[in-house]
Amino acid sequence: MSTTILVAAPAKTTDARAEHSPTRGIAWNLARRVALALCAFCLFWLLAPFAAQAADPGVTKTAIKIGIFGPLSGPAAAFGQGALGIAAIYKDLNAHGGIYGRKIEIYMEDTGCNTAKGIAAVKKLVSFDHVFMLNGGFCSDVVMALKPSLAKIGIPFMDGGAADTRISKPLAANIFQPIFTTEAFARSEIDFALSKPGPKRIAIISQSDEWGKSGHDPAVDELAKHHLKPVADVIMERGSIDATPQVLQLKAAKPSFIITVLYPAPFAIFLRDAAKYGLTTPVIGSQAIGIEDAARQLKNPLEMNRVYVFYPLAAPIGSPKMAKWEAIFKKYNPRVRTVTFAFIAMGGTEAVIAALKKAGPEPTRAKVIAALDGLYHFNSGVLSAPISFSPTNHAGVSGGAMITYVHNKLVVVRRYQQAPK
Amino acid sequence: MFAQLVVSGIGQGSIYALVALGMTILFRVTTVVNFAHGELFMAGAFLIYALLNALGVPYAAAALAALLFLFLFGNAVERLLMRPLANAPHLSLAMMTVALSYLLRGGVRFLWGGNVRSLPPMFSFAPIEVGPVVIDAQDAVIIASTAALLVLFFALMRYSRFGKEAQAVTDSTRGAALVGINVAAFQRTMWGVAAMVAAVASILVAPETMLYPDMGARVLLRAFAAMTLGGFGSLGGAVAGGILMGIIEQLAGGYVSTAMIDIASYIVIIAVLLLRPSGLFGRAEVVRV
């Protein structure tokens, strides 16, 4: 507005001058137009970054705001270690200078593994904190409830540890899942169980929530492909403190393998009661289980010899390969006793960092999504398999390892580069 | 399988009964339903865990410390949180206990995080096998302790001066004060005693279950169902209700569906409230007009 006034005011003078000298008047008009064009160009150049910021919030000259959410409280709070792991990686990045001079500004929210609380948490991160992107979400129920709105907003979201296959299938352009999905896990565990000699009698014990179903249903489907049915199919809820009925039913069914789709607490209680009632059938646990932690919770750790766990990390905790990641986690969470879940989301976070770097000094959400879509065979160093995304596939991890204790030592008994088809 | 389920149900139900017993003792004297009782149970378990692991204290000493600490803590809760609300509506008192439960849960989570932890077993006895039925030594101790506590409190309430004072305070705090009972001190002590019963539950039950900040919530719900089933305010009812709850859960899980275990307590609450609101051993309140 002020520019218009300044230009309009001397108009008469210009005309007067033009009357004195027509050539001088034309030159003056030309100069004025060039000056105006220059001013407009400069103004555009100066305001361009702010215009970009208005389109994609959360990026300033000095910081990139990233929202982390996970169950820091509630019965699934053990998974909250994943959120702490994500934060530790960003803090470590900041300690090493950040990305293109920008530090990662962390905004962390608790979901309590509760859908309503999770939706409120993410709403706050997006609408109030104006984060650039999201990283986290460890409960499938919560992430599945958020999926439609996240897809609509278009904010880049790197899943932390929610494994439900439906998070990445059907694909949403901005949602990335850098962990082994429940479907791939179900295929692997059935493949593993059926590869063992002897009768093929598979039983399943699972939680009845969304996460439990997302592991249970593909396992049943996979068995059906082999013309098999579970010989027993029982439910154990998250907060259970006893598994007697489940153990007795499983024992009566005489299974050769038991597939478990349980969180760490019910898994440990199930193992205890199985030992109590003499159920010695081999058991497979999902990647939600920290095998080291489960071993600590058993009265007799030798019982772990029949427990197999799908392991998402590059190597067992405590091994030299994991030392770097453990050091980063411990540096920022010195009082926390680490479990597998502390590291499970670090691979995805490393992928985010790689994408932010690739997006260049002026990152936009579109650039980051494009960079993630181009991530192929990305070795995070912390996961047991590389991460690969493409515009048509956002389930980034297709391999893993099955581990167990042999003579009190963790041993990889099978490695899957690709989940069995 | 039936015998095993019943035996296991008695063991499981004794856990609910122990927690329900603590809630009933307090309810009889103060008419307050303590929604933080599950968290007192949880706090006791974590205190034992801390003393065992951080300080290397023997189990017996840790258990004694938990009893003492929770007795004092119960006293402090009454003095600092409940007494200022003495004349407030019942809803305010209930809300204060809800707030306390969240505070305790949050505090434990802050100190120990949300990880699942375990306590070593109190006894290293092998399980007792009677034919096909397995009785865990820890379960046997829980059942015996619950029975002993029930007898103790029943005798105290029925035959001692303490019991008569408790009855007087329950009937009318003003009347009790007029006959010389220090009502405030009495109620404070009862908060301590109820918290101490929660500590007993922690000592006995925690090695059986896993330790995590939310462990009290589920047990509290079962204890609540047990109180409803047995009759609010009845000591025997709380214990019988707890044991019945345990057996119902186990049989429903074993013979109907494992998915029924979790909803059995809700079904019990609904059925009892509809068919016999005073519970199996409770008495309908009679008011002279």
Span of the ends, CA to CA of chain B = 53 Å
- For the report, how would you describe the main beta sheet of chain A? 7 strands, mixed
Low-confidence stretches of chain B: none
SS elements, strand count of chain A: 12
Oligomer: heterodimer
Residue share in helix of chain A: 40-55%
- Percentage beta strand of chain A: 5-15%
Mean pLDDT of chain A: 84
Order of helices and strands of chain B: HHHHEEHHHHHHH
pLDDT averaged over residues of chain B: 86
Q: How many strands of chain B?
A: 2
Helix content of chain B: over 70%
Structural class of chain A: alpha/beta
Catalogue the unreliable spans of chain A: 1-19, 47-54
Quickly count the helices of chain A: 15
Rg calc of chain A: 28 Å
Percent of residues in β-strands of chain B: under 5%
Strands side by side in the biggest sheet of chain A:
7-6-8-9-10-11-12
Secondary-structure element string of chain A: HHHEHEHEHEEHEHEHEHEHEHHHHEE
Per DSSP, the total helix count of chain B is 11
What does this structure look like?
The complex is a heterodimer of chains A (421) and B (289). By secondary structure, chain A is an alpha/beta fold. Chain A is 45% helix and 15% strand. Chain A has 15 helices and twelve strands. In chain A, strands 7-6-8-9-10-11-12 form a seven-stranded mixed sheet, with helices on both faces. Chain A has a five-stranded parallel sheet with strand order 2-1-3-4-5. The radius of gyration of chain A is 28 Å and the shape is elongated. Chain B is mainly alpha-helical. Helices cover 73% and strands 2% of the residues of chain B. Chain B has a two-stranded antiparallel sheet. In chain B, strand 1 and strand 2 form a beta hairpin. In chain B, helix 1 runs parallel beside helix 5, helix 2 (37-53) crosses helix 8 and helix 5 packs across helix 6. The longest helix of chain B has 29 residues, at 2-30. The radius of gyration of chain B is 19 Å and the shape is globular. Chain B starts with a helix and ends in a 14-residue tail after the last helix. The interface between A and B is large, with 40 and 40 residues.
